[in-house]
Every structure is written in C-alpha cells, then in structure tokens.
Specification:
This protein has 259 residues and is an alpha/beta fold. It contains ten helices and nine strands. The longest helix is centred in the first third of the chain and has 20 residues.
Length: 259
C-alpha cells in the first residue's frame, strides 16, 4: 500500500492550525504525513505572523500512531533512518520558538500520544482515548516519548503506561499530568484556539525564552538561575519591554512585535 495522508495547514489570525489528515486510518503517521508535518511545522515556526501553533486531527481522532502498513520490509538500517527523520519534527516542536498546543479528540495512540506529549500544552476531550501501545507490536516509544512522558507524568506512571498498554481517558490524563486542559467532547480545538489567543497576547520573545529554558529538561537551581539571568538580561533590551511598560502605565493593551 502506498503512503497516503497529509497535514492541512491553515491560519486564523496569529494562529497556525496543523490538521493531521488520514481519516481512514484515524490519522496514522504515514511516511508521507510525517514529511508534510515537518514542512508545515517548519513553515509555521518561521512565519513571523504566527504566535501559536495548534496540532489537531481530522475526523474526530487525533492520531492512531504509526502507519503499520508501511512497516513491511523495514530493516534495522532503514528503521534507524526513519527515526532520524521523525526526530527532526520532535526537535522542531520542542526546541522551536513558537508555543505548540495539541487539541486531542478521540484516539491518541502510540506515536500519536507522543506527538501530543511533545507539544507544550495538551488540550483533550474528557472522553479522549490515550494509550502507549508500542510493545504490542514489538517496538518501544518513539517520537520523543521516553523523554516527554516521564517529564509530564513522572517516571513510574510513564513506565506503567508504556509497559501495560492501558488506555486512559482525558480526565484521567489530566489527573496524572498528561493532559493540561480538559474539554467537553468536540470542543478541544475551540478550547485550544481560545487558549492560543490568550498566549498570543503575550510578548512572543518572552514565550520563546520560557520555552527554550524549559526544553532543557530538569536543571539544578544554579543552572536555571543562570538561564534566567541571561534571558532576562536580553529581554530588558527589547522594544517589547518598553511597549509592555508603556501600555501598563497607560492602561491599554500592548502591541508586541517580537523585537
């Protein structure tokens, strides 16, 4: 079976919305879809008019994981190359300058769950179906999942999810830290947009520095204080700080430019 599936990129003001589109396979990550996801994510990260990126899925599901129909004939060497190409997307989502929000409805399974976990914020319907089932087909979590899931859930809970293959819903996901905001069924994307608009009102350089600092993972107090001093020093010299200060004193909304 040839690779199909794509990612539909759309803009709503300062928001970029990337929709995983392979509905006949619950938006499984075909090879073609992965390549377009990287391209669309790269374009959105580079677009100066974009403040926040939302990743969602078409047809009532987020993503059912890797497209198993494309695994035929994969060798150890070619499988490693596949992982390296996936890692381009992971690095871009985690290290890129723009906040990324996952809007999850229905199934977020395997690599689909890891795509969501790589986002800065996860908005999920309370009846979403979240599971990490790589060991059911003889693989281990990819798409950065062995880094993102323990950071979100803690090591023990992440191991339990990875090893048991159990499915939890969005409400349970919020309780364990996998989900950040629970929505009513069908409302995840709209709630993600509302949150994204709130984020977009802030100074983009501030959000970029917060994201860059947090992407380094757990750090010692002294290491984080050093990051804080360096980043704050840069921000003190920005036009946005002057705009934010003047807007505060004038009691008006600021108009940040990311400079």
């Amino acid at each position: 079976m040839s690779d199909t599936g794509t990612v539909i990129g759309a803009r709503e003001g300062s928001l970029a919305i990337l929709t995983l589109s392979y509905p006949e396979r619950r938006n499984a990550l075909s090879l073609a879809l992965r390549e377009v996801l990287f391209d669309e994510m790269q374009h959105a990260m580079a677009d100066e008019s974009v403040r926040v990126i939302i990743v969602t899925g078409e047809g009532g599901n987020f993503c059912s994981g890797g497209d198993i129909s494309s695994f035929e004939g994969v060798t150890p060497a070619s499988g490693r190359v596949r992982m390296q190409r996936i890692h381009r997307v992971v690095r871009l989502m985690i290290n890129g300058p723009k906040p990324v929000i996952a809007a999850v409805e229905g199934h977020a399974v395997g690599a689909g769950l890891c795509v969501a976990a790589a986002c800065d914020i996860v908005v999920a319907a309370r009846n979403a179906r979240l599971s990490c089932t790589f060991n059911r087909i003889g693989l281990l979590p990819d798409f950065g999942g062995m880094w993102t899931l323990p950071l979100r859930m803690g090591v023990g809970r992440a191991k339990m999810m990875m090893m048991s293959g159990r499915t939890i819903d969005g409400e349970a996901g919020e309780r364990v830290g996998l989900v950040d905001l629970v929505s009513e069924p069908g409302a995840a994307l709209e709630d993600a947009k509302a949150l994204a608009r709130d984020i977009a009102k802030g100074a983009p350089l501030s959000n970029e520095f917060v994201k860059a600092a947090m992407a380094r993972g757990p750090a010692s107090l002294e290491a984080m204080l050093a990051i804080e001093a360096d980043a704050q020093g840069v921000l003190y010299g920005t036009e946005d700080l002057q705009e934010g200060r003047q807007a505060f004193l004038a009691k008006r909304p600021p108009e940040f430019k990311g400079k």
